[in-house]
Amino acid sequence: MGSEGGEKKALGWAARDPSGVLAPYSYTLRSTGADDVYIKVICCGICHTDIHQIKNDLGMSNYPMVPGHEVVGEVVEVGSDVSKFTVGDVVGVGVIVGCCGSCKPCSSELEQYCNKRIWSYNDVYTDGKPTQGGFADTMIVNQKFVVKIPEGMAVEQAAPLLCAGVTVYSPLSHFGLMASGLKGGILGLGGVGHMGVKIAKAMGHHVTVISSSDKKKEEAMEHLGADDYVVSSDPAEMQRLTDTLDYIIDTVPVFHPLEPYLACLKLDGKLILMGVINTPLQFLTPLVILGRKVISGSFIGSIKETEEVLAFCKEKGLTSTIETVKIDELNTAFERLSKNDVRYRFVVDVAGSNLVEEAATTTN
Fold first, then answer.
1. Overall pTM surpassing 0.85 (yes/no)
2. How does pLDDT run along the chain (364 residues), one tens digit per residue?
3. How many other C-beta atoms are found inside a 10 Å radius of the C-beta of residue 290?
4. How far is the C-alpha of 149 from the C-alpha of 162, rounded, in Å?
5. Are 183 and 211 in contact (CB under 8 A)?
6. Is 254 exposed, middle or buried, given 0-12, 13-18 or 19+ CB atoms closer than 10 A?
7. How far is CA 86 from CA 54, 71, 94, 142, 169, in A?
8. Do strands 345-349 and 36-45 pair parallel, antiparallel, or not at all (unpaired)?
9. Which of 31, 55, 62, 145 is most buried, judging by how many CB atoms fall within 10 Å of its CB?
10. What span, in angstroms and rounded, lies between the C-alpha atoms of 73 and 209?
11. What distance in Å separates the CA atoms of residue 226 and residue 289, rounded to the nearest whole number?
C-alpha cells in the first residue's frame, strides 16, 4: 500500500449524541497495514440496527459515530500482503471487520460469533482507533473481512445482501432448511423479511408472510412471490397455520408475543429470532415441549456465507427491492425507516453525494 502504516483522512456523516441526527464529519482512518484494503465507498445500505446504534437504544453507543454496515466500494489500494484483491475490484464490507482468529467460532469460519469480534462501526480496532462505517467516502478494512461482488451484479443491489441477505441465508443453511418443498414463514416484511421471501422462494419453499396488517399483502403476493399471507391479529387466519410450518424467520425488531407463532410450527419446527429487541420475550413452555420445537437466534452470517449468498443471488437473478437516496437525505431516511415507510431497503448513493460541504473537523 502506497502509504502503508500511515493514516488517511475520511469524510462521512456522523451522529454525535442519542438524538441520532447525522451531520458531516471529518476524521482520520486507523493506520493501514500489510493485510489491509483501502476502499472508496460507492454505496451503503441502511439497516434497522443503525437506528438502535445512533439513538443508543442498547446503551452502548459511542460518539461521534459514522454508521453503515452494508458497504460496497472500489479497491483503490492494497497492502503488500493482500492476495485476495487488486486495485479496481468491486468489493463489499459487512457488519464485522475483525476477530481474534483463534477461538472455536473463528477456527470454524463462524467469525461473527467470536467474542472479540470488532464491529464495522461503534467499536475500537486493535490499535485503539474507533471504527467508523460506510456512510463515508473511504474505509480501510482487513482483507479477511472483504468480499468480492460478483461481476455484473449492480452495486446498489449487492449492498443489502451484506446484512439483510446473509442474515436470512445463514440460518437456512445452518439448520438444513435449503431443500425444496419446505414450508416457511416470514414474520415481518421489512428489509430482512423481503429478502427472506425472495431467497426462500428461490430455494423452492412454500412461503407464508405473517404481518400485523394487510397493507403489504398485494406487494408480498404479487411482487415478492409469497404463496400465502396471514394477518397476525386475525385469530382465524392464525388458526389456519397451526402445525403447518417447518420454520419461521422472525425479523420483528420490537417486543411481540411468541406463542402465536410457536403454534404454527410442525413437530421439530424452528422459530429463528433475528430482531434486536431490548426487552425480554416470553413464551409458555408446553408450546415448545409438546412439539420438540426450537427457539433459536441467528446473527448475520460468516464471510464464507456472505460469499455464498452473493453467488446464490447472482445465479438465481435475485434482486433487492430498494430506494436510493443521497447522503444529505440520511436523516429523513432514518425517520421514514423508523415508521416502516420504505419498500424495502434504503441504499445511500455515497459516491454520487456531496460529503465535503460543511464537513466538521475533528482531532479523532
1. yes
2. 444 656 799 999 999 999 999 999 999 998 789 999 999 999 999 998 999 999 999 899 999 999 999 999 999 999 999 999 999 999 999 999 999 999 999 999 999 999 999 999 999 999 899 999 999 999 999 999 999 999 999 999 999 999 999 999 999 999 999 999 999 999 999 999 999 999 999 999 999 999 999 999 999 999 999 999 999 999 999 999 999 999 999 999 889 999 999 999 999 999 999 988 889 998 999 999 999 999 999 999 999 999 999 999 999 999 999 999 999 999 999 999 999 899 899 999 999 998 865 444 444 4
3. 9
4. 10
5. no
6. exposed
7. 33, 18, 19, 13, 28
8. antiparallel
9. 145
10. 33
11. 30
In the block, which residue shows the cell 397451526? Answer: 242
Q: Which three cell numbers stand for residue 177?
A: 432448511
Report how far residue 275's alpha carbon sits from residue 271's, in angstroms, rounded to the nearest whole number. Answer: 12
Q: Which helix (H) or strand (E) holds 202?
A: helix 191-202
